## 1
Amino acid sequence: MRGAGPALTRRAVVAGAGACAAAALIGCSRRGASAGAMSSGRLAETRIGGQPITIAAQERAVMLGANSGPTPAWLFGDAPFPVYRLRLGESLDATLTNRLKEHTSIHWHGVRGPNAMDGVPYVTQMPVLPGESFAYRFTPPDPGTYFFHPHCDTAAQFGRGLAGVLIVEEDVEGFDDDIVLVLKDWRVAKDGRFLPFVTDEGASRGGTFGALRTANALVAPDLTVPAGANIRLRVLNLDSTRVGDIGVEGAQAHLIAIDGNALAPMALQTWRLGPAMRMELVLRTPEAGGKVTLVDYFAREPVTLATLIAAGAAKRSTAFTPIALPPPKLPEPDLSGAEIHELKLSASAIATDYAGLAPIVLPDGRTIDLMDTLCSTSRTFWAIDGKTWPQNGHEHMPPPLMSFTRGTTARIRFTNTTPHVHPMHLHGHTFKVLSTSKLKRPIHWADTVLVMPEERVEIAFVADNPGNWMLHCHIIEHQDTGMMGWFRVT
Ligand code: C2O
Ligand code: CU
């Protein structure tokens, strides 16, 4: 991206000097306006390294697709999915201000940050009440494509659009453009109003699907890109439910990173991208007028998610070789002595009856007994290792699923005994996907891994980040109804 001159408008936006003023050239929405995504098909981007920023969680009317009326979206800022960029080594200093009518927080998904900044109400901080603020300050230790979202009432808050993108840039040359594409289906009716985010039918099966598929909050947007250029494409699945089989037509794309973690470039056929998962591609665009489409092949009929349209004189004349990102610098798990923790993913209608539940101790030392109902649903459909959230309205924390001494290798085997797929995610650490029994995938680093029906997936990581960390399915209705637990690193 920092290579020679991509489109002027975009550089202005990324450079971020008065991001909204610059972005007005391409349609940055103003406060109070009906805020759709930008007409360029690109998300608004702000460079934030070292600079304090405020992120307001607020309701904004957004026109989606061909709907007849606006959608009362909940956004971090004024337009869907703000993109914040910083360079590796720069600090993040973001103050969340809650202008919603219920409490919220920010969880920085995939970032190996300090526990007190992890944004999980009643686990790492108290919820941020309406009218209140909370300062998140840390330096992300790894480059990558991350996102952020709340962690209570997630089906509704995340479902209404409350999410943003965090990009930590590494030093790498050779990209002429760098595009972020956020995939999300909205649970909206034709008049723009939201449909129920949770249904028993969906929560107890594959999840409740949205009615309107979008990329960057637009239906199959066209994005203008330089011709004959090396394009970096960062694709994020920020849907609560949908799993895609993502491929590219019109160019040979190479997969260069998973969940922000570099891997040796691999020619892309398709990659199965579950909720919360990210994939990064590099491709060479065709001559001016040529098109490259991002396609989901998972559906019965392939669905075009977005189209890149090449324009201008060709940037490059040399043959295309995929650009490799610098390999991740992550602690290598030591499998020799590590015992395997079996975590069975199963259906369960009954909440586990734990004896003598311990109070919750926050990183700042505060002790609390009960969570509130926004953070604990009364429904139970799923279990991890045979355990759900506790009896009696779930307002207690269950005991940890696992505990590790700092520095030891955690080795986990997920076994899916259900007929549904589960994208399993854990906080505070990046794991190595060592083996999978069904879906063929290379060994790679990730923070979220799909576990297919009847599949066994083995992961390992060095438990080097002290604190209490959540572990859950990222199909949000599954997470909310039992498929969530936590582990402790001391
Ligand atoms: Cu996106 Cu608990 O995670
Ligand atoms: Cu699940």
## 2
Amino acid sequence: MMRRKLVAGNWKMHGLKADLGEVRAISAAMPDNVDAALCVPFTLIASAVEAAGDMLIGAQDVHEADKGAHTGCISAGMLIEAGAGLTLVGHSERRADQHETDAQVKAKAEAAHRAGLMVILCVGETLEERDSGRAEAVVTAQVAASLPAGAHGMWLALAYEPVWAIGTGRTPTEGDVAAMHGAIRAKLRELIGGEAESMRILYGGSVNAANASALLGCADVDGALVGGASLTADKFVPIIEAAAALG
Ligand code: PGA
């Protein structure tokens, strides 16, 4: 099965209107054979959509309820109205900082899908979990517990992001990446049968222009989720181009 590669940027808590030129430059360089997206802060979604042309603009989180008394939170309907087409859920920074559980991540993904958003659902092990030989068990358990009802590659992608590789400049070996993505695919087959083949599994954690080709070329890697190196066109475009070269 040929899965079209998806390269998504995660701007985290970076990005003001002064940075919209980067959005424009990134979208201008978007090749035809790759899907590219930028997940920007909520406040930048509407203006990034205007700047992005055909490129998908996403959010970094969404609340699991459609509306209600949830001060400071944002609903999927609000994101759609702002022009977002996608949202991340379950990023490890939210699992750690906001104590989000697998059940909550699942509910968030389902709320996003109900409203018509595409979803990138993040999973990944800590260094302690990897060092103790539990990485695959932890990650496949996260997949099983956070996979939304009706999971389908048309609207859902997974992102494997080892927590210890995020923002550190460290990455797993290509062998470890392929092994983990294979384990995730096998778990998906168990959970959703043949639909597992259509679902993209992105790698994330210290992806940059120098390592993108090798990481994106690993078996069962269908794209990348990129933090620091997605903030500027000069760093992000070469990663998108590396994905395009692999087809
Ligand atoms: P990084 O972040 O590319 O800066 O390591 C990746 C992420 O957190 O999605």
